[in-house]
Amino acid sequence: MEDLIISGEVLAQAKISPQALRIEIAAYLYDKERLSMGQARRLAGLDLISFQKELAKRDIYIHYDVEDFLSDIETLEKLDKDK
């Protein structure tokens, strides 16, 4: 697969910094469910909380479904048994 290189000229014309563009792309791909939260935050170069704040600024909701909930319950039950 090829790397994507965007020239400084294009960034200047778009009036966006490389970091801001990475965040925009990461948020978009996360919203479209093309990247997981971890993949998207790494692309954005942000820690989890900072990336979640960027999502909130864009009215993008965290993907959390019934499967995630059940998995979390299972994990909590395992942790409780280990006490």
Question: Can you give a write-up of this model?
Answer:
The structure is a single chain. By secondary structure, this protein is mainly α. It has one domain. Helix content is 66%, strand content 0%. The chain contains 5 helices and no strands. The protein has helices at residues 8-14, 18-31, 37-44, 48-57, 66-81. The longest helix has 16 residues, at 66-81. The termini are far apart. The model has no long low-confidence stretch (mean pLDDT 94).
Averaged pLDDT:
94
Order of helices and strands: HHHHH
Unreliable segments (pLDDT under 50, ≥5 consecutive)? none
Number of helices: 5
What is the total tally of β strands?
0
Fraction of residues in β-strands? under 5%
Radius of gyration: 17 Å
Count of the separate structural domains = 1
Largest sheet properties: none
Derived from helix and strand composition plus strand pairing, the structural class reads mainly alpha
Could you give a quick summary of the protein structure above?
With 83 residues, this protein is mainly alpha-helical.
Task: Please give a handful of descriptors for the protein shown.
single chain
Summarize the SSE layout with pairings:
Elements: H1 8-14, H2 18-31, H3 37-44, H4 48-57, H5 66-81
